[in-house]
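Readers of this paper often ask what the protein records in our data store actually look like. Below, we set out a record of this kind in full and without editing:
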Amino acid sequence: MYRFLLTRQWVILTLIALVLIPAMVELGFWQLHRHEHRVAQNGRISRALAADPVPAERLTSPGHEVPRSDLYRRVSARGTFDTRHEVVVRRRTNADDEVGFHVLTPFVLTDGKVLLVNRGWVPADGPQTAFPEIPAAPRGKITVTGRLMADETSAASGIKDVRGLPDRQIMLISSGQQAASLGKQVLGGYIEQTSPEPRDGSPELIGEPDHSGIGPHMAYAVQWWLFAAGVPVGWVVLVRRERRDRAAAPASPAEEKTPTAV
């Protein structure tokens, strides 16, 4: 009755089904893990943004690599901006996806160490090779507050660290590179300034990271598991259809021939 399952066609079809089921189950768990990672990440960012600011030197130091657990932590520092050594970070976009520059200004602390401060976004007034017009930073000793960020790398950001750029232009924010350029001790990572806010709205402060959405990963996980459950159901349906079709098919000439009476 089911001898057709031993045919080459059905053996191949059955093997494909046996491979698809665990593969789809695994893809479902992969999407589930992505969902859990996003939920955990959103919670960590939310807690970091809601926490009271702490002194920057409590979380970072020269040569320090900012861990993921400290990303977006609100930190504060007191010192003065060193605008003579200010640089701009090329090809950065604002909230409206306009291409311009980020303004990176060394902030000299009271103990002589330097904290890199991303003061925000400014438009490109001309070609990318031209240094943009940058509003002056506050003068004198002030307290600056911002979100702690890790040094940027090509591997993590996907941005190629191009060499031979115009003077005072960089592609990636690296405390190590700036320490070598300044000849001073630079705290690891940098901060995205949140206060004081510029009086005329420029540079345009960088907005908070998106930490509200969780994405469609859970829905994708359920879909993969439904697909996995549907494979054996589909296989059974095909088997029953094949059996019914074979039973309804006319018998072969050899089978239709009846014995002749002697």
